[in-house]
Amino acid sequence: MFVVKRLASRSAALLSLLCGTAGNTIPRSAIPTTTPPQECAHELIEEVRIGSLGGTAEYSFSDINSIAAAPSGAIYVDDAHPPSIRRFSPDGQFVRWIGREGEGPGEFRSIAGISVLPDGRLAAWDRRGRITVYGTDGGYDEIVRVELENPWGYPYVDRSFVTDAAGRYYLRVFASSPYGTDPLGVAGIRYGYARLSPEGSIVDTLAAPRAERRETAEPIVIHTRAGDRSPFHQEMLEAVSPLGYLVAGHNATYGFSILDPAGTITVERDGFQPVEVKPAERAEWRARVAFAERRSRMSFREVPARKPAYRDLWVDTYGRIWVHRYAEALKRSEPIPELWLEDPDGNVPRITWEEPTLYDVFGPDGQLQRCVRVPDDAEVVASRGSLAWGILRGALDEEYVVRWRIE
What is d(CA 406, CA 40) in angstroms, rounded to the nearest whole number? Predict the structure, then answer.
């Protein structure tokens, strides 16, 4: 059962998030009941798949960075190598290339994300300090020069660039220096989002709450077909809502706050019980950590006996919050396929325990709407209405763009 608490101001929200203070609680009769931890009543049904193995350049992807879906159903794909943007029709047919690599108007050098504006135009963030906007027909429209000068640079992380329903831009930034002055080094990184007006001027910065507990070492990361995986580390997670505010929570327990200045909502799961890391599962992860430490001569985080509440969270076009929760792993007969793994001699300890990808989806009001199970070897990166878009990887690690219907 989830308890939804409403607080009057952002300062109260941060206090609640970090210290656990309570506001007014909605009557329990109004709180939806969760399904059992391993069950999900909703699935993603594939409707459209874009891509081909060894096909033409228009339908071949090498490293998809981001996907954006327009209200018209048009699908935009940002591929990192080489930098390119492609537009596809709602039924997956190639329409045109958008811009090209270069230095001139409408061209780009290093794309860090794309997003559809409220009027249907496409915006692309170029790390050299400008946002390029393309018209609904895909042609070059304008350049928005970013006045922001971040002394610590822009982190290479997911969701680096977001737009909201008012046409404002959000850029992922370091809210404090990740170097030198922080005694915990990169383990103490604090992120935030610089909010820009449609003209590119700084409005303010939405800084994520600082976690009370910080680890002194980083976790190892393995790259799988279903996304990056680490051995169950605790951290502060946050995302920007297109409704214009942050959603943030520390994943040690099942809770997060919707930091709307008009009235913050804190969502907590009553009676949360963490999922156990099975002894054999933990042994494999510990062997992989030990191998990484020997090879790199660095120290990494210890593998816990229990998993945190959730792995990630993000917010879709409708302001719904997708919480990727940890689940009980199942033993595979073969190791989990890993991307870019260099192991010619077979010395790298492999992981044979794999979790199903389960998302709890909450409305902007914090009410649980559904639990969605994602197909194997797939990532969901965007959603609008009853549809979701994401990346599916094939047996040879080739990439496809998929549109699913939520059922």
Answer: 12
Between these two residues, 88 and 128, which has the higher pLDDT value? 88
Whether the predicted model's global pTM rises above the 0.85 cut: yes
Name the average pLDDT for the chain: 86
Q: Using 50, 70 and 90 to split pLDDT, how confident is the model at 180?
A: very low
Q: And the tokens for 392?
A: 């599916």
CB contact at 8 A, 371 and 324: no
Amino acid, res. 47: E
Q: Is the pLDDT of residue 35 over 70?
A: no
CA distances in angstroms from 173 to 125, 170, 191, 241, 284, listed in the order given? 13, 9, 6, 16, 35
**Mean pLDDT, range 177-201, rounded to an integer:** 67
Res 200: pLDDT:
87
Distance between CA 224 and CA 351 in Å, rounded? Answer: 11
Beta bridge partners of 403: 48, 389
Q: Give mean pLDDT, residues 138-148.
A: 89
Which residues pair with residue 100 across a beta bridge?
107
Report the relative pairing of strands 130-134 and 122-126 from DSSP bridges: antiparallel
> What is the pairing mode between strands 100-101 and 107-108?
parallel
173 forms bridges with which residues in the sheet? 192
Give just the sign of the alpha carbon dihedral 116, 259, 319, 275.
positive
- Between β-strands 264-269 and 2-7, what pairing exists: parallel, antiparallel or unpaired? antiparallel
Place of tokens 């917010």: 315
319, 364 Cβ separation under 8 angstroms? yes
